[in-house]
Design a protein that fits this description.
This protein is α/β, with parallel strands linked by helices. The chain has six helices and seven strands, in the order αββαββαβαββαα.
Length: about 140
């Protein structure tokens, strides 16, 4: 059985809830990632911030990314998966909730230990399952 721990990208770095979107964009650039978990006090996961969020919800709206805080874009409750969950369960959660990135937490501390992205899925899962996953995510996406 392949687990979330085996397919995740370890060491996910959070952007603090009160850091600006400009700060988050710099972290994304430096790390070569397109998304960051938003963490609050005691590393509590508050949401996920994507480069697309910064562009569409800040820049395209004429807002100043040096003034908008990461927490301002933390909407809803983030979906997570525990590191010892089966990789097939990872795919089911991502498909059910139409998410392209999934934070991985440990048990029992519930601390962020990594992230799973579409690229991680493509690298670690059988090609047929990857095709099914991509078809599900893309077919169910609603226009934004």
């Amino acid at each position: 059985m392949t687990t979330a721990r085996e397919i995740m990208h370890p060491g996910a770095e959070c952007v603090g809830e009160f850091e600006t979107l400009a700060d988050a964009a710099r972290i994304m650039k430096d790390r070569g990632v397109g998304a960051l978990p938003i963490c609050g006090e005691n590393q509590k996961l508050l949401g996920i911030l994507t480069d697309r969020d910064i562009v569409l919800k800040c820049v395209a709206e004429g807002l100043d990314p040096t003034k908008i805080k990461a927490v301002d874009l933390a909407v809803g409750r983030p979906m997570v998966i525990e590191e010892d969950e089966d990789a097939e369960q990872v795919l089911r959660v991502m498909e059910q909730h139409l998410v392209r990135r999934l934070p991985v937490i440990n048990h029992p501390d519930h601390k962020l230990v990594g992230m799973i992205s579409e690229a991680d899925i493509a690298r670690h899962m059988p090609q047929e399952r990857v095709a099914e996953f991509v078809t599900t995510i893309c077919a169910e996406e609603s226009p934004q």
